[in-house]
Amino acid sequence: MCGLTGGVWTSRERSLSVRELQNMTQSLRHRGPDSGGLLVSSRNNSGHWERILLETERTSLPENPPSEIGCGLGHRRLSIIDLSTGDQPLANEDETIWTVFNGEIYNYQELTADLKQRGHRFRTESDTEVIVHLYEEYGLDFVDHLRGMFAIAVWDERRERLVLTCDRLGQKPLFYRKSTGQLLFASELKALLQVDDAPRELNREAVDDYLLYQYVPHPDCILEGYNKLPPGHRAVYERDSLTIEPYWTPPYEKPALFFNSEAEWSRELRHRLSESVSLRLRSDVPLGAFLSGGIDSTIIVGLMQELSENQTKTFSIGFPVEEFDERTFAREASEHLGTEHHEQVVSPDALSILPKLIWHYDEPFSDSSAIPTMYLSEMTRRHVTVALSGDGGDELFAGYPRYRAVELARRVDKLPGFAKSILGWKLWQKLPSGTSQRSIVRRGKRFLSAISRSKEERYLDWISIFNEDVRAELFTPDFRASLGTHEAKRFVLEAYRQCPSRDFLTRTTCVDVATYLPCDILKKVDIASMAYGLECRSPFLDHHVAELAAAMPIELKMDARRQKKILLETFSDFLPERLRNRPKMGFGVPINVWFRNELKPLLYDVLLSDKAQQRGIFRKKNVEQLVEQHLSGRWDHSYRLWNLLCLELWQRMFLESDQVPTQAPATI
Question: What is this structure's pTM?
Answer without folding.
Answer: 0.93
